[in-house]
Sequence to fold (700 residues):
Amino acid sequence: MILHTVNRAPGSHAALQQCIQALSGPAALLLIEDGVYGATPAFTRLFHRLDGTVHCYVLAADLQARGIDALVDGRFQVIDDAAFVQLSLDCDKMVAWY
Amino acid sequence: MILHTVNRAPGSHAALQQCIQALSGPAALLLIEDGVYGATPAFTRLFHRLDGTVHCYVLAADLQARGIDALVDGRFQVIDDAAFVQLSLDCDKMVAWY
Amino acid sequence: MKIAVLVYGSPTASSAAATAYRYARAAIGLGHQITRVFFYGEGVHGASALAAPPQDEVNWGQRWQQLAQEHEIEMIVCIAAALRRGVLNQQEAQRHGKSAANLAAGFELSGLGQLADAALNSDRLITFGG
Amino acid sequence: MKIAVLVYGSPTASSAAATAYRYARAAIGLGHQITRVFFYGEGVHGASALAAPPQDEVNWGQRWQQLAQEHEIEMIVCIAAALRRGVLNQQEAQRHGKSAANLAAGFELSGLGQLADAALNSDRLITFGG
Amino acid sequence: MSTPDKQLLVVVGAGPHNATRARDALDLVLTSAAFEIGVGILFRDDAVYQLLPQQQADAIDAKSLAANLQALPLYDVEQLYAPRSALEARGLDPDNLLLPVQLLDDNATAALLHSYGQILSF
Amino acid sequence: MSTPDKQLLVVVGAGPHNATRARDALDLVLTSAAFEIGVGILFRDDAVYQLLPQQQADAIDAKSLAANLQALPLYDVEQLYAPRSALEARGLDPDNLLLPVQLLDDNATAALLHSYGQILSF
Fold:
């Protein structure tokens, strides 16, 4: 299983779209840094083509820093740094989209 | 008159779209650096909302470096560095989109 | 598990150094080993000894130094990327006729082979882009 | 015309320094005056004396030095941005207890007032973003 | 205060933690105000994220930008603008921002750029 | 050549003159090949611009990336891929590229990522 991370804001940068276009399950998609803006409802349409074998996560600290912890779409599981580490080990390899 | 410059590739970055959305004539729009990819036919749809009071330019050296001088859409006037200087002086002020 | 980390982003123009640091600290906290951190591209600026950020901002280079010392982490800075950006040790400063060196203690200049090796011989390689 | 230039991009992570240089040279060729170049944000890395790019690549800092010397251009590096990124002159190196200075000759550390002044008191201010 | 043709508009397009762009823009605004230059700010595109309340920068060991933004009125910087479309595209509530910004439709944003004597963008 | 699970895929998403990303990716590929590590390259999104013929880097005083890319076959790096959709979205002719890349539909691109033992992205 591949872990995909995205760290760019979807309002300015195509990294999230590019990742989703090249992604097939089983996979984990983790939004970090400015990528966490992608977990807000305004961008849910980007995720429609993903099926149930792609699990979506978002990093808690980056949400808090940006004041959007209360805006996260239900598709996402909010995880802390330790869970990020565990996720990266549960996956065989990773692709960073930036 | 305002000179708007855009230096990001439209395939990865929203700068060109963002510029066009906030632009009204009379104005000059100059694509430079990776922004020159925006002068190729694949992106002409982005320019449809501009009227005849917005003049579109693209920087010659950046086209040549990227091997796309033969692909420039007819809407654009290809200019050299000296013409860039003259254009920046013909305008009162500039906004760099990046 | 043995984990290697790639930092490919400027400490001031990206969050790569900060996020990678938080990841590494969490991994160590869970009992894993961070074997090597490789700084490449703009990431090499994080190895400058001369950075003097405001007192209420974090100096990420210093944070990495401390973590590396406490947990025996190799901190490798890509030598080609560093030369191009003006991050030099004494030896390279002399070789290129430069007036000073600025590579922070605890960091080592080396080649890309160290990254290729980390990719294939660690249990995981985690990339933090810029 | 009196033209000021803002370079707001790393010389290695953006083309800002290169494009600004070509613009400045063309302006001088047309008989205009480049009064000041202000390096801000990641742009301050362009003022490092330690950069040692491969011999077949341009050292943009050196190009700026030559142009500035020939045409009496003020080259101002934002002091706050430079400190944060480890670009220091002798005085700042001493003040912050750093082992060396690395600001290239011909560049001067100063405050943001020099940018605000350039914006309002030049005929044009041309920004090259990163 | 200076005449309109000598006023400066600082345009910022980056979120609060995207490099130092937001802080660099703000520092230029505060410097200009200290020099008694009339100065306004346009928060375009992702920069509207700077205006969100409840940002906790310490969660990522960063310095709070919001605290500095909220000090703008103390420096008599009161020409604060944001395109309504930038907030809408990001699903943000214009009634819940940490600064009193004037919301502009896209035509008004374009007109704003024309109205200032000088523009600097980040 | 190494077994598939020990092979490395270098994914690059940047054009030829966007920072040093393209060159950094290529340098890692050449280093890996020198260490006799099996290595492939996926040119995704804007990276397909690297494959355009007739780039004249000297027009902006830059070093030619194309020259180095064309040397890849000499180093036995022959696993070269690009998504067909990336070329189409940019209006580029797949029959006029400076390297013989294998074109993939989006499903095949996703499958490619799964097939390599390790991935590094730029």
